[in-house]
## 1
Amino acid sequence: MEISAAGRLEVRITAADVGKRVSVRRLTDTEDTTEKFTDTVGVLTSWDSGVLTITRKGGESVRMSESSLVAGKVVPAAPARRRGPSATYPELAHVSSRAWRPVESERLGAWELRAAAGFTRRANSVLPLGDPGLPLDEALTAVRRWYGDRGLPAYVQTATGAEGTQELLCAELEQRGWTREVTAELWVGALAPVADRADASGVELSRSADEAWLARYQRKGVSEVALKVLGSGPSVWFATVPGEGVEPAAIGRCVVDGRWAGFAAVEVDPALRRRGLGSVVMAALASRALEEGASAAWLQVEAENVGARALYSGMGFSAHHAYHHYRDGSS
């Protein structure tokens, strides 16, 4: 908190700081006489009529009265990373988008409208990396029309919690009735330790997803559109650990793109979990990615997937930013 030369806490933020990352301390309303304080760090997304809204790293919005503030200051937009490779959100957004391409896309200024017959929100949502070239309300009207013409709900994918993320856009969407349906995190880590973690000699690698791989994949009845999305990316690899039956014991997917290797669809037979098969799959894919010149890794994980988070944390991964899918409230 900001402390004056006289040793007093001071509020050193104003409405002019909307869009900046701030740290504030406020007095929490309590029923007793004991003063209690709450600290909040995030992006100041609005300051209207005496009420502030701060969006935290995970996307949650906190509203507070300016009269409750006892201290506040602007803080660096991007704290130095203590684990894993350094990267901005725009860089990772482009990399992750190239690893999961739609079958149809169209530009709206710097926004990309993506569609793939409804197969996953990522391939059927707007990626808004910059100015759409229109006022926001007009841009959202164009988005609704584009997805409506394809019989799809309108989604916008946003991010919070890192340099270059879109807290202000999240706030604007919520004000217009768009609903945040899904939140997950993108994690990053060094690639070499993943390759060194396990013996991957029994893993089969392929450039395409065969019937055995698809039999283990969580999304059953994969369509031709889904196969196109799965096979998209600069350099795609599929890993399979053979099982005793038709379905493999474990599978995984990796896309190599410059210095980055993106992991997805790491799935293990439920009867064989906690035997290190997930690590084996990732080690095989990481080794191939290293051969192609990659040095850093990324993956996406949902907050409630405790097992996956523990596995990836043990491999040296850590959260870079949260990403969200907002659905149009009128659809």
## 2
Amino acid sequence: MLFSEFFQKWLHETYYKNAVFVGRKGDFYTAVSVGELFGSLLAKHFLSLIDKKILTLPLQVVEIGANEGYLSCDFLSALVKFRPSIFEKLEFYIIEPHEKLQILQKQILQDVEFTHKKTLKDCHFTNAFIFCNELYDSFACELIDNDKMAFVKDFKLIFKPLTPALKKQCELLKLQKGEFSPYLSSFFEDLNAACERFVFAGFDYGGFLPQKFSLRIYQNHQLYDPFEVDLKAFFAKSDLTYNVNFTHLKYLIEKHHFKLLNFKKQSQALLEFGLESIIEQSENKEKLLSQAKYLFFNFDAKFHFFEFQKSPL
């Protein structure tokens, strides 16, 4: 089978479907695992977009890939502190295809009125703020090695000639060796069709013009090379991930005529969101300072914040 099919079966048809935990109890950490500071900073940024009239009320607020729901919880809790009056002009949604994760999200957000949607294809948003954390790195990908691509047989990676269509796309992106996700293009098409207007804010790790494979396995916070281990032993029992191809991401933003608002290192973005003011105004400065140190020193330079906008014609 194609490697992308193997990836999809591993991650989305089994691993995520079984409602994996993120953080100390899981296989990997994200910025959300650190504590409420990350969601509070995103809420501060969201309010600044409203104050600058980049976003206009009323709004649909949407998280994609919420996992247990902690980012949405932290984001909404911060809005209660910063500007509670705004809630009367917001509708909240989570896009989540997996039933077990939907149950977890309802438990974490038990005091929040929100609507679950399974996919973007089920949605129609007139004016939305959409956010996600480490979403694109979960999209199934192909492994490209010059004029060859990966297939999986009996849990072994084998490389065969590229299909003509995929070869054309790789040439367009000047991709010779690395990961290519056909699902990224499909996502942008669905996003465009589902929304009349939006601001999309996301965090993910990646780089431009990849020259090597970044595919890796995380299990109990240990890193494994999928080219050196028995894939059958890890299949659906651990996280499979890779660096997002930001060249592809920016190409799709331009292709769909979206406006790029931000693209910068995650650490820089969090500073600009108002880190200093949130810590200064907190009644528990030491706790937030500890979280800030973790966010800045445990998430390296490949982590980025990207934000783009669709406006009506």
## 3
Amino acid sequence: MKSSGGIAPSWVIIQGLGTVLIAFFLIVSDDRDPWVWAGYGVSAAAWLVFVATLGRRPRLAVPMLVVSTATAAALAGPAAGLTATIITLLTIGRFAGLTIAGGRLIAAVVGLDLVLVIGSCLLWDRPAWDVGGASAAVLVSALCGLNRRQTDLRVRQTEQLLEQTRLAHAEHARAAALDERTRIAREIHDVLAHSLGALGVQLELAEALLAERDDRDAALTTIRRSRRLAVDGLGEAREAVAALRQDLPSLPEAVARLVEVHRRDRGPVDLDLCGEVVAVPTVATVALTAVAREALTNAAKHAPGARVEVLLRSGDQGVRLEVANGLPPGPGRGKGFGLTGMRERLELAGGTLNAGPDGGERWLVTAEVRR
């Protein structure tokens, strides 16, 4: 575990200080027995191997630390001073703080150290207070190491949780971006399929008028209609792209623009905006705008010159769009309004669409998106 500011891991510092303390107490030790010093040598060498291999070969480092602490604990009785006890405390505290060692292994090693300390002190007839003091010191050192171990484990779990949260947020953002791209692709596909399909039909009609009937006036009218279809399709495509750029106008503004264009080019139309403007998802704004455009286009096509009424009502429950116009004359009344694609698009936005006679002499298109 690294601390902030690029400081070395805390246990590296502790191990460095532990190495210095072990060396210091070995230097000032009063022991003269060669076999005691042989034990010190084994314990110190095992400690150095542990320090050198912990980060690279933990399977070797952990047993070396066990050897170091057990050897020092066994010397608590025959050693003349506190050197063996100090080494035992340092090594058992470090072992108890290892996060790579299991709880049962730590408990077993702490128990082994206690047995060795008590047994060696009793074997060498140490006073009772030496036995009790050394045992208590081993337990306190082990508890300090365990406390540090728990802190490190909590920090590691927190880091893992933060990483999982970051990955989840990144995946969520990626999924949202894919959904947005899919929506825009669908919008552009619908626009192009509708506009280019109608444009193809008009061009085929113009070709037939010229090739079969040589009716130039009718062909010219059809070509002009084709041009308008191309311009309208381009405008719809631009609005779909604008949704991706997040500069799509609000729903009331978009509907007002459509009404103004219809009033200027095709005939009288009344607009009624009711209620406060509420925020609706971009996909719903695009869908409702497309419904308004399609309804106005159908009104101009099937009931030319008739007055059109557009109502946009906003409220706590959602948004409701109504477009009403006179029914077309003749046997084709109420047919060919072509809102099937708009109904599917609105359903994808969580809305509903109904179109048909209102019981009188009007054709009514109703689109609604609930909050």
